[in-house]
């Protein structure tokens, strides 16, 4: 590893879109990628599955303040900075059916919204040590208020009130950080990977993880003139 390599953390990266994002970034010269996983063993297995020298597992459960703090301290002690953060960890419980419950709301928001916000907050001191901090929030078009408000809009047949609201909250969190660090040159953006075939939706999706990861990777690699505070997918910008 070179001292000039970009240090990257992808949360929820032991499988699915997160693992593919990690793979694509690690395949580029000059990037050292931390495979964030709440389960240590699965993180090790995921890192080994890529067969790349510039990846390593990092245990981080974004629903646990202690786990987030431990991960941040490890990155600080080993690298002293973080250049790219991909907030990818997420859960989808609505697909199991049944009415929304307080427990379902709390568990989903704990990961999708609170987890993304508190992970970002804990890593700000390390991102501040980067000359070009990049933060990507992997969200969903189900979090779009514009689409949901249109009776003929996209995915109107999918209720998913818990997941939708958690991703809408994530989008606002991302916008808050984009505004907070705009003048410092940070690029903070939201990516919609689309309806992708992963364990999250019991492999009901139609898109591939390869395609789903490309947009997040592009945002992670933005140059100094790149956009910030945007919500996009592979076809371009989508409405909030």
TrEMBL record:
GO molecular function (one): oxidoreductase activity
List each coiled-coil range: none
Task: Name a Pfam family for this protein.
Answer: adh_short
Q: Which GO terms describe its cellular component?
A: membrane
Alphabetically sorted, this entry's keywords are: NADP, Oxidoreductase
What's this protein's family per the entry? Belongs to the short-chain dehydrogenases/reductases (SDR) family.
What name has this protein been given in UniProt?
Uncharacterized protein
């Amino acid at each position: 590893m070179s001292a000039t390599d970009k240090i990257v953390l992808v949360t929820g990266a032991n499988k699915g879109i997160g693992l593919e994002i990690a793979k694509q970034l690690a395949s580029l010269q000059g990037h050292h990628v931390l495979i964030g996983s709440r389960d240590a063993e699965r993180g090790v297995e995921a890192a080994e599955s890529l067969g790349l020298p510039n990846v390593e597992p990092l245990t981080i459960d974004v629903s646990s303040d202690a786990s987030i703090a431990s991960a941040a301290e490890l990155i600080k002690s080993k690298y002293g900075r973080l250049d790219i953060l991909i907030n990818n960890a997420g859960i989808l419980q609505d697909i199991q059916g049944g009415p929304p419950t307080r427990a379902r709301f709390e568990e989903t928001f704990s990961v999708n919204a609170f987890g993304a916000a508190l992970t970002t907050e804990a890593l700000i001191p390390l991102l501040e040590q980067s000359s070009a901090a990049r933060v990507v929030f992997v969200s969903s078009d189900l979090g779009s208020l514009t689409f949901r408000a249109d009776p003929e809009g996209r995915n109107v047949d999918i209720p998913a009130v818990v997941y939708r609201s958690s991703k809408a909250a994530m989008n606002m969190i991302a916008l808050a950080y984009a505004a907070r660090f705009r003048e410092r040159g940070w690029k903070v953006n939201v990516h919609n990977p689309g309806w992708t075939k992963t364990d999250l939706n019991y492999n009901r999706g139609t898109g591939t993880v390869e395609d789903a990861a490309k947009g997040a990777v592009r945002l992670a690699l933005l140059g100094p003139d790149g956009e910030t505070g945007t919500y996009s997918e592979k076809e371009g910008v989508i409405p909030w």
